[in-house]
């Protein structure tokens, strides 16, 4: 009898299914589980991995833009700091040049040799010039440096305002600092301007790039062009002049930045990974339970009998797969359990002894921790003492010269900002060198400590008393007018005169000055020192105030 074609196909499919099922059932359980898990993971994780890769690419792109923006901000901060340091160096060079205003009318060659060239060396600049109050260049490092007299910074310095800014000149960008110069006879009106310029060249850019760990490039804009939208993005730093016009664009072109997390994108990636892992774990667990539940039933029954104390319990499983190994291990375990219970008591005693040893070790660790805490406290106290010694004069205990200079700048800024008076008293012990030579250095040191104690007792909590140098002392009086400072100086003079010195009577000369709005901190120091000099010149043991006409 011949079978119909559809019937033959159905029989063939049934035979094939039976053959596959038969081979599958004879396959070890470990192989079946591995094949099933591999299929589930392949089907489930493939789209999730693709999605995660896409998200990571987005996160990398976002990270790149964040790092570029951060580096651009760091470039701007470095340039701002360079501007402040350049202005500060110019001010230091100006203060160190004693008698500079008096030489403005002198020989230009002398100005070049004593002022311009030393200023270029100390401020690491490319050009420098001295301009008088009429805008005429008295001396310049080169003919090309004469353009400095037309810079807006120099024009503002003519009115007593020292400043620094970026200026474009002949397709180059310069950092120009201008410091007003004052004459002792006319301290309120500048007699000239000292201007220095540093060019933003390749060496300058290379140093900035070295600080950032890479290289930077600069594109200079002409006076008729402004930066494009790409240049004005967050990936670059724009240099602007005092009028707000863009002078140049500095862009980061090479280097490795510190990684920062793209929070939003990475958070999405984290959610996708957690979801995929949960889905794979759930699917794999269901498949594992489905395939292993029937095989574990016999093992569970044997475990219950073994837990009830039936040491003769054995598992009958002979297949050469993982469950066969498990059955043999279970049977071996049942045999060894009885011996293990006997060994348990001995191990418990050993554990108790170990616990006692651990307790003793814990006590030792606590003692060591207390010693470390004491050492930490000693180290903290030593650091505090070192920090105090860095700003304190070792002989008198007052502020040293460095701490006084920092306090002077800080209090001048506060007085300018709050519109409050600020006075300075400079004190010098009369004939101290003669006293020191006559009675010896130990007696001189004792006298310095006595005068320092008078200053310390007379100063308020927010006053700054310092040993300026040698036998010279200084007392900064915030929120104190000139008249009030003179009263304080008179009290100091009388108190010093009343010091019970075993060698001879002590007198002191004092100079008083008050801060004028817009003046530099060095001006206040100069005026107080001039008043002190006049007090010593007029006979000592007196208090003199600063008068411009007497300077």
How would you describe the overall organization of this protein?
This protein is α+β, with helices and mostly antiparallel strands and 551 residues long. It contains twelve helices and 13 strands. It has helices at residues 5-26, 29-96, 108-123, 152-157, 202-212, 263-307, 322-390, 401-418, 432-439, 441-458, 482-497, 521-537; strands spanning 127-132, 137-140, 163-169, 172-181, 192-199, 214-220, 236-240, 246-255, 422-429, 464-469, 472-478, 508-514, 543-545. A hairpin with a 2-residue loop joins strand 3 and strand 4 (172-181). The chain is elongated and about 135 Å long.
* CATH class membership of the largest domain: Alpha Beta
Number of strands: 13
Distance from N terminus to C terminus (CA atoms, Å) equals 140 Å
Q: What's the architecture of the largest domain, going by CATH?
A: 2-Layer Sandwich
Q: Could you please say which CATH topology of the largest domain applies here?
A: Beta-Lactamase
Order of helices and strands: HHHEEHEEEHEEEHHHEHHEEHEHE
Structural class, please? alpha+beta
DSSP strand content: 15-25%
Silhouette: elongated
Q: Enumerate the strands of the largest sheet in spatial order, edge to edge or round the barrel.
A: 2-1-5-4-3
| Weakly predicted, low-confidence segments | 256-262
The percent range for helix content is 55-70%
- Provide the residue-averaged pLDDT: 75
CATH superfamily of the largest domain: PAS domain
């Amino acid at each position: 009898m011949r079978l119909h074609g559809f019937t033959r196909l159905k029989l063939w499919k049934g035979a094939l299914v039976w053959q596959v099922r038969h081979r599958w059932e004879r396959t070890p359980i470990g192989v079946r589980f591995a094949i099933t898990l591999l299929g589930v993971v392949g089907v489930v994780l493939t789209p999730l991995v693709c999605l995660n890769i896409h998200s990571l690419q987005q996160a990398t792109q976002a990270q790149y833009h964040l790092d570029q923006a951060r580096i651009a901000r760091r470039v701007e901060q470095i340039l701002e700091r360079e501007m402040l340091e350049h202005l500060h160096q110019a001010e230091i060079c100006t203060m160190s040049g004693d008698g500079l205003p008096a030489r403005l009318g002198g020989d230009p060659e002398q100005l070049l040799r004593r002022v311009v060239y030393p200023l270029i060396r100390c401020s690491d600049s490319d050009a420098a010039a001295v301009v008088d109050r009429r805008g005429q260049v008295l001396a310049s490092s080169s003919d090309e440096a004469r353009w400095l007299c037309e810079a807006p910074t120099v024009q503002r310095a003519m009115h007593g305002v020292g400043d620094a800014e970026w200026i474009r000149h002949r397709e180059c960008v310069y950092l120009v600092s201008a410091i007003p110069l004052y004459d002792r006879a006319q301290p309120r009106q500048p007699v000239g301007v000292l201007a220095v310029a540093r060019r933003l060249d390749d060496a300058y850019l290379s140093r900035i790039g070295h600080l950032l760990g890479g290289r930077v490039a600069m594109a200079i804009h002409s006076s008729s062009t402004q930066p494009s939208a790409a240049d004005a993005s967050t990936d670059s730093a724009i240099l602007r002049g005092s009028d707000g016009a863009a002078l140049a664009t500095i862009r980061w072109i090479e280097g490795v930045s510190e990684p920062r997390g793209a929070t939003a994108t990475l958070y999405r990636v984290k959610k996708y990974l957690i979801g995929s892992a949960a889905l794979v774990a759930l699917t794999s667990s269901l498949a594992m339970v489905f395939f292993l539940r029937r095989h574990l039933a016999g093992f569970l029954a044997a475990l219950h009998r073994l837990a009830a104390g039936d040491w003769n319990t054995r598992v009958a499983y002979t297949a050469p797969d993982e469950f066969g190994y498990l059955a043999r291990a279970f049977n071996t375990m049942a045999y060894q359990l009885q011996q293990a219970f006997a060994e348990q008591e001995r191990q418990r005693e050993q554990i108790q002894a170990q616990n006692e040893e651990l307790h003793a070790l814990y006590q030792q660790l606590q003692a060591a921790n207390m010693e470390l805490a004491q050492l930490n406290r000693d180290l903290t106290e030593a650091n505090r003492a070192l920090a105090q010694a860095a700003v304190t004069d070792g002989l008198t205990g007052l502020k040293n010269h460095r701490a006084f200079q920092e306090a002077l700048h800080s209090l001048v800024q506060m007085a300018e900002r709050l519109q409050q008076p600020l006075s300075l008293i400079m004190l010098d012990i009369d004939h101290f060198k003669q006293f020191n030579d006559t009675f010896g250095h130990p007696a001189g040191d004792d006298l310095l400590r006595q005068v320092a104690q008078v200053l310390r007792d007379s100063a308020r909590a927010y006053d700054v008393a310092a040993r300026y140098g040698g036998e010279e002392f200084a007392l900064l009086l915030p929120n104190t007018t000139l008249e009030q400072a003179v009263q304080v100086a008179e009290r100091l003079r009388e108190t010093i005169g009343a010091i019970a010195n075993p060698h001879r009577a002590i007198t002191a000369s004092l100079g008083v000055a008050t801060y004028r709005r817009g003046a530099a901190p060095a001006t206040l120091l100069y005026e107080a020192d001039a008043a002190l000099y006049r007090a010593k010149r007029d006979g000592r043991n007196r208090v003199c105030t600063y008068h411009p006409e007497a300077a």
